[in-house]
From TrEMBL:
The keyword Glycoprotein does not apply. One of its GO terms (molecular function) is beta-glucosidase activity. Belongs to the glycosyl hydrolase 1 family. This is 6-phospho-beta-glucosidase. Signal peptide: none annotated. The keyword Electron transport does not apply. Pfam families: Glyco_hydro_1 (PF00232). The active site is at residue 374. One of its GO terms (cellular component) is cytosol. The lineage of its organism: Bacteria, Bacillati, Bacillota, Clostridia, Eubacteriales. One of its GO terms (biological process) is carbohydrate catabolic process. InterPro entries: GH, GH_1_N_CS, Glyco_hydro_1, Glyco_hydro_1_AS. Transmembrane segments: none annotated.
Amino acid sequence: MGRFPKDFLWGGATAANQCEGAYNEGGRGPANVDVVPFGEDRFPVMFGKLKMLDCDAEHYYPSHEAIDMYHHFKEDIALFAEMGFRCYRLSIAWTRILPNGDDAEPNEEGLAFYDALFDECHKYGIEPLVTICHFDAPIALIKKYGGWKDRRMVDAYVHYCDILFHRYKGKVKYWLTFNEINMLLHMPFMGAGLLFEPGENVEQAKYQAAHYELVASAKAVKLAHEVMPGCMVGCMLAAGEFYPRTCAPEDVQAAAEADRDNYFFIDVQSRGAYPVWAKKRMERAGIALRTEPEDDQTLREGTVDFISFSYYSSRCITVNKELMEQADGNAIGAAAKNPYLKTSEWGWAIDPVGLRITMNTLYDRYQKPLFIVENGLGAVDTVEPDGSIHDSYRIDYLRAHIEQMEKAINEDGLPLLGYTTWGPIDLVSASTGEMKKRYGFIYVDKDNAGNGTLTRSRKDSFYWYKKVIASDGEDLA
């Protein structure tokens, strides 16, 4: 192994709605993430097929308490520091700052919470990387505008950004505009607060919302550079190369089309214009975007500084419908089973080499620095009688991916800013709402039903990752 750059940003990543809890404390208003329940109704709500804009007594809502990081952040950041984190990626809850999403004045208690959190990071020399919107749409704006279907969401978002940038300009250098922005097409309510009426043109609604998010992102990038000279603003996508299941040209074409769908948003955020194929595809589908004359210039002027992404697995695709139905663990997007890869307990293909392939594809496509802001293994952990947790499977997964990162840097010459593993501390799964699907180096005593003491404890991987960071990736044993 070659060494990683000395200024490489090792760390971990979380999302407010999956870890903070305290959903109705400190002046925070309700958001879409608060009404997504655990259980059989979870996916219908996330996909915008089942309307739920308020909580009820029949469902359990994991985000309400999550792991209560709102009250434990000092303890948690101290544990991150013990591992040697140089970077902590987190998200700000929009409704903690603006309870109704577009309030004229911000909620000072919410602003003060993040001030304290950032101060705690800097106390240990940890650089915050802040996601402005991580699957977070204020309920008030969903009821008022229909979420990102309405252009007025752009102004609400930019107002929110303006508050953040002026408040935290001395504390946060790295920003991301939207988390996994491409998930809007797959989880419309979770991604953008979209609900669909019977007979509505769903594709039109999704791509219109996408346009507004892209305009909002571009405006935020330009504003950030004006308010915080020297800051870096990135985009973020759910990445993972699509492989053709066979070498049949039809499968190769299907994989290429699936990749294009995945990169659609990032093409615009990185290059500042819609790609020609996207325009033609929308035209063929009868999608006519409502735009303003200045939108083209806004997109051109608001391109991102770096490309960040999540990577958990590659995907396999084929035109053979029977083979496409054989894969499990693909709740978000369709994929075929790859016979050459093992899978996690949740059916996700484990493909470290796919990370290097994905990195090269992204850099070839955009020629901008990369940042891996999510990568990890969701697994069931067993607590031994003495309290220890032996998660060698997680260490094996991360080691194999770090080895491929090193090759991408030293053999392929790719500029990689950093690596923040997903869920350095156990948190609520975004897809299934489970706690038993654990990613962390730090175990949190809580189960799927919300029972537990919330006590934090170190797993074997905690000590392993500490060693990795201390050696700049040289010691992976």
